[in-house]
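Supplementary Note 3. Input sequence used for the single-chain structure prediction.
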Amino acid sequence: MERRGYELISKVNREVKIKVIPGHFATKHSHVNYCVDMTDVKSKLSAAKAAAKTLADRFSSTPVDTLITLDRMKMVGAFMADCLAHSHINLNQDIAVITPEITNGKMVLRDNFLPFIKGKRVLLLTASATTGKDVRSVVEGIKYYGGEAVGVATVFGGAFECGAPVAKIFGLEDIPDYASHGVADCPMCRAGVKVDAVVNSYGYSKII
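The predicted structure, written as discrete structure tokens, is reproduced below.
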């Protein structure tokens, strides 16, 4: 399966690269025809720093108190917070970086995390956001807990609205034939094409 993969290089920062594998993949929400592998961005120092700087540059004029990370993006989030803390508007700001619990698709904050959200300007960082379903849920959660969602940053994203500015490094224009379908409507399933792997934020597990 990996032999089918190819590399995408960011047009904005050539140090940011992701791997794209065509096939038939099952996610928690849908079936997709590409697996977008961000292992290097999430795991390697240089790749994480490059992605963080690229996204932070998009919010250099945005006041930020707290950065919420999803999809195992905490290392990128820490570097991003450091970049933002050196921007003029956030100069020397001690930006918090937290990863809340997600239960049944909803963000849950324990009492010890509440001070980082209530009355704070919050930036959301996620690895992938194609439909915007999870992003909208977290943005609603930020508002519920008394915070202000000032932006959403994602490595790979689709076209969606969530009530806050969205910045992405790669988009659907980089994978023009990318498609996502509900399980019941998946054309590959209807054609009898077997699922290659189950995909989540940790990576993919092949189905033999």
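Helices lie at 39-43, 45-58, 74-85, 133-144, 187-190. The mean pLDDT is 94.
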